[in-house]
Amino acid sequence: MTTDSDEYVYDEATGEWRPAGEITAQAAKSTEVRDAAGNILADGDSVSLIKDLKVKGAGTTLKQGTVIKSIRLTDNPDEIDCRHDAIKGLVLRTEFVRKR
Q: Are residues 24 and 56 in the same domain?
């Protein structure tokens, strides 16, 4: 009979066999998405812009303090997918937003 503590996974980055639970915890930690202030972001959060941003292709500028509601996280921890009234398919870098 095996338990979770008996399962090991080969970690290619370090070249060592490590406990499966340790690998899972490390993967969860590395996928945390943080805003400019270091707060952890999650799907559905509201954020505000910390500086004016010129939006490429839209010919408009989002002003500092603009609130973006219901963000969605992407595969890239440096980007969030969001909606704005004037712009469809808006993707923002996390370095320009702060959680509300």
A: no
- Please report, for residues 19, 22, 30, 40, 53, the alpha-carbon distance to residue 16 in angstroms, rounded to integers and kept in the order given: 10, 12, 19, 30, 45
pLDDT tens, residue by residue, 19-38? 887 766 666 555 789 999 99
User: Residue 62 CB: number of other CB atoms within 10 A?
Assistant: 20
- Domain range for 25 is 1-30
Domain count, the chain: 2
CATH at 79: 2.30.30.40
Of the CA atoms within 13 Å of residue 55, those in its CB half-sphere come to 18
Residue 29 in tokens: 């930690």
pLDDT in tens, 47-71: 999 999 998 888 889 999 999 999 9
Q: Please indicate, yes or no, if residue 38 is contained in any of the structural domains.
A: no
